[in-house]
Amino acid sequence: METWAAPRGFRTEVIETGNFRLFSLLRQRGAVRTLPIYIEGDGAPWPSAFQPPRDPTPLQPVSLALAARDPAPTVAYLGRPCQYLDEPELAHCDSAYWSGRRFSPEVLAAMDEAIGRLKLRTGAQRIRLIGHSGGGVVVALLALRRDDVADWVTLAAPLALTVWTTAQGLTPLAGSLDPMAQPAAAITRRATHFAGADDAVVPAEIIVHFVGAHGGRLEVLADFDHDCCWVRDWAQLLRRVPSQEGEP
Asked: How far is CA 201 from CA 156, 158, 165, 208, 240, in A?
């Protein structure tokens, strides 16, 4: 990862939390009032519907590629629990944390702690959270628990988890929090949700279901699917996210 990060101005760091060691990247080129923080997706694909991968580290980290294309002078990236670990460390990381408990309270607590440290390190006053796929679910759950989120953005994220697992014939995520089931909050109106019209993994209807209940702005993009073409068009899409910079 160092060979990728350094030429792009990112510094790698492992953030130690109570339950997990979380991989992070930080590119610091100037002061920012609002720090963009990108949250990685669920990681490597499953070999089958019932068998998680041996290592959840993403083969093609979409959120990382999005972070690299963000024009903000200072940008942070945060991996998910058990990602980017070496073999001995991975052996001690329970696979439940990249399967049924991937959105559990202890996962959210660790991600929340790491975000607080990144914010403190950069001197930012507020944060903008961005996440693709399962990273968008983490973003939603974090936005609902923090009071310093200026706005948040999800891309192809299954924000109505129970509706999604049922519709896709997947095993329910026992032990995970469902954004759809969380109490309504004003922060949901500061959200922008992008969905791909051709996404078979997270059909746009799943996100429509969440937005209908919680609010936020939804764009369904023609010719986009679950992986294409978020990275290619990210600079353009980011300009379509309303800024909350001046709001308290």
From this structure: 8, 9, 10, 15, 24
- Decide if pLDDT at 49 tops 80: no
Orientation angle between helical segments 204-214 and 161-168, nearest 10 degrees? 150
- CA pair distance 175, 101, nearest whole angstrom: 5
Going from N- to C-terminal start, the domains of the chain cover 2-238
Domain 2-238 - what CATH class? alpha beta
Q: For the chain, what is the mean pLDDT?
A: 91
Which tokens go with 88? 């001995």
- Mapped to the 3 state alphabet, what secondary structure does 34-66 carry? EEEEEECCCCCCCCECCECCCCCCCCCCHHHHH
